């Protein structure tokens, strides 16, 4: 069974995720978009449920409604009874869905709480694939090994921490004190079709987005999570799962194939004959000239900053690159994050990176030859 055949049911222990992201990453309100993107690369999400006492998460509730997530209310109770009520309700619903919806092949359990480890074991006994999702600082060490795959929220493309992530592993469930009044932030990506009743502000359409990074980011995700070739038809389905409003006509193309050919001419992707007529295989170019230009830009900027006597930090370095090349985006080269791009440069021995506890950031240098 390929990833395209997967039917995914998502269950979010929302209090654990939201408070973990707030305390560990400084992210508030919680951004659901990176989770939606990661699951869209793995299959079709047919059910989305989030469990919490929503009186504590007014802003989050609005954003989740826009993302078509069903909100399950767990009313305030005293002490551990409230926590247990949420855990039990979520576990019972997951097992019930496993029996009633046999077509569901994968369960995504978004929590860092080790109390859900027995649920993971039971779902795997029922021949279901289990993907765990959690904030690293608040994820129990017992949970990831129990899953078929575990995604740390901190590492998902699109997550932008506003504080340095804690470098230790925390407890399974963070403090349950109500979060502070969150600052207003833009709605998470990907942009979903929004019911009229839920729309309180304009939603960006695919026409306003740069299509090359979207295609490259999706292609990179599919290549990471599958063994076989990525065909154009499969690539478009994954893009539509990320952004249901996507239409190549908005970007001036008469068909998706024409869009891909244009991106091939730009050196973003490479097309080759696929298994069916009119459905080519899509890969990244083997010619590394475009990548070399990007890495050369990075090295030049780091070297220039070094020459002034400063110690270049990862934070803010992307802005320095864009001062030299305003159109720079690591996503054009298939990297989901700027950190991944710089680590690729390090793997090629172009730069050195070292974590500095004092600044709470990576320091970059160009090795002397």
TrEMBL record:
The lineage of its organism: Bacteria, Bacillati, Actinomycetota, Actinomycetes, Pseudonocardiales. Residues 162-190 are annotated as: Disordered. Residues 210-286, 290-368 form the HTH OST-type domain. PANTHER family: HTH OST-TYPE DOMAIN-CONTAINING PROTEIN, SLR1870 PROTEIN. This is NYN domain-containing protein. Residues 176-190 have a biased composition (Pro residues).
